[in-house]
Amino acid sequence: MVQQTKDISGIVTGTDGTPIPGVSIVVKGTTIGTVTGVDGDFELTVPVDGEILMFSFVGMKTQEVPLAGKTTFN
Questions:
Q1: How open is the CA angle 17-58-55, to the nearest 5 degrees?
Q2: Residues 23, 56: contact at Cβ < 8 Å?
Q3: Is 47:33 a contact under the CB 8 Å cutoff?
Q4: What gap in Å lies between CA 29 and CA 18, rounded to an integer?
Q5: How buried is residue 27: exposed, middle or buried, by Cβ count under 10 Å (0-12/13-18/19+)?
Q6: Is the pLDDT confidence value at 1 over 70?
Q7: pTM for the model
Q8: Which are the contacts of 24, defined by CB distance < 8 A and separation ≥ 6?
């Protein structure tokens, strides 16, 4: 059986709006993930039943963001 997936993308920025490169993004409960590029951008293919993205960066608290049917994050 082939698992259904969806593509998501976005840009990770700081509170001042500056893009943050090198942020790890993982679908909670899986090993599926990626890292933001030099412009803070990312693309990731996630299972349709994936519910939460976990964003982590050295020196910062890990944040969990619900997918809630979204495919774009800014």
A1: 60
A2: yes
A3: no
A4: 29
A5: buried
A6: no
A7: 0.87
A8: 33, 34, 35, 55, 56, 57
Q: Give mean pLDDT, residues 13-40.
A: 95
Residues 6+ apart with CB under 8 A from 22: 35, 36, 57, 58
For 52, the token pair is 């939460």
Cα of first residue to Cα of last residue in the chain, in angstroms, is: 33
CA distances from 57 to 13, 35, 71, 74 (A): 12, 10, 22, 17
pLDDT digits (tens, 9 = 90+) for 48-62: 888 999 999 998 899
Structure tokens at 50: 């994936």
Place of tokens 């412009």: 39
Q: Which residue has the tokens 């500056």?
A: 18
